[in-house]
Amino acid sequence: MIYIQNLQLGYSIKKWTIKLFFFLLPLFIFLVTIELILRNIPNDYSYKRKYLDENAEKIEVLFLGNSHVSYDINPAFIQLRSFKASHGSQTIDYDYMLIEKYSTRFKNLKYLVIPIDYFTLFTRFSDGWEENRIKNYNIYYGMHQGFKISYYFEILNNKFSANISRIIRFYTNSISHKYCKNLGNSFNDNYPIQKEMIDNGSFRAFVQHSINNKKFPQA
Questions:
Q1: What pLDDT digit, counting tens, does each position of 81-128 carry?
Q2: 3-state class of 63 per DSSP?
Q3: Sequence-separated (6 or more) residues with CB below 8 Å from residue 51
Q4: What stretches of the chain adopt beta strand conformation (E)?
Q5: Domain total in the chain
Q6: Exposure string (b/e) for 59-80, b if CB count within 10 Å is 16 or more?
Q7: What value does the mean pLDDT take over residues 169-189?
């Protein structure tokens, strides 16, 4: 009698598991599809990864670092073949990881430019409010940094509504997240109006330059 009951219980659990699987399968497929679509939207990280993959051997001057380099230096005015693998808030440990990733392919590299700011030697992504940038290096550069699941998925780094909005903007109006030119220098045609710049300046001053703030994120 006990044996029969165990068989029935096992059968019920198996049947329940199968039903749960088929119930969740469409949701899983939907989320995976959203993730793949988000990754397909062009951005600075995917563009620079592709450029380095295709042109690392030709680069003579490589710029790394944060937005101070991304926006303030134009490789087009440098006679040697130059490229900027810098990104907003990029910390020096990620500079090193990028060098290490392509070290065997920089056959003609003559100059490596790394900016040194007041925060360079003691800030890391994991210490600041821009921790979500780690996923950009894991997803688009193929790095494996950190153990949080959010470090490996686009869909987990924004509200679902924001992700859907990104998809709609790109596939209806071709609005991507690529804000760099061919040689990697950044631009933004949607630069904030004066009031927004003032508000943003006040915010940056507090979160990045105030001793009262416990975390010191990168600029």
A1: 999 999 988 999 999 999 999 999 999 999 999 998 877 888 888 776
A2: strand
A3: 83, 184
A4: 61-63, 82-84, 111-113
A5: 2
A6: bebbbbbbbebbbebebeebee
A7: 88
The pTM assigned to this predicted structure is: 0.81
149 within domain boundaries? yes
Range of the domain at 23: 1-39
HSE-CB for 82 with a 13 A CA cutoff: 21
Q: Cα-Cα-Cα-Cα dihedral of 26, 28, 32, 34, to 10°?
A: 60
Residue 24 scores a pLDDT above 60 = yes
Amino acid identity for residue 1 in this structure:
M
Question: Are 31 and 54 within one domain?
Answer: no
In a domain, 206, yes or no: no
- Assess whether 48 and 156 both reside in one domain: yes
Same domain, 90 and 161: yes
Rounded to whole angstroms, the Cα distance separating 197 from 195 reads 5
Asked if residue 179 and residue 118 are part of one domain, the reply reads yes
H and E: helices and strands count for the chain:
7, 3
Answer yes or no: is 114 within a domain: yes
Query: Does 209 reside within a domain?
Result: no
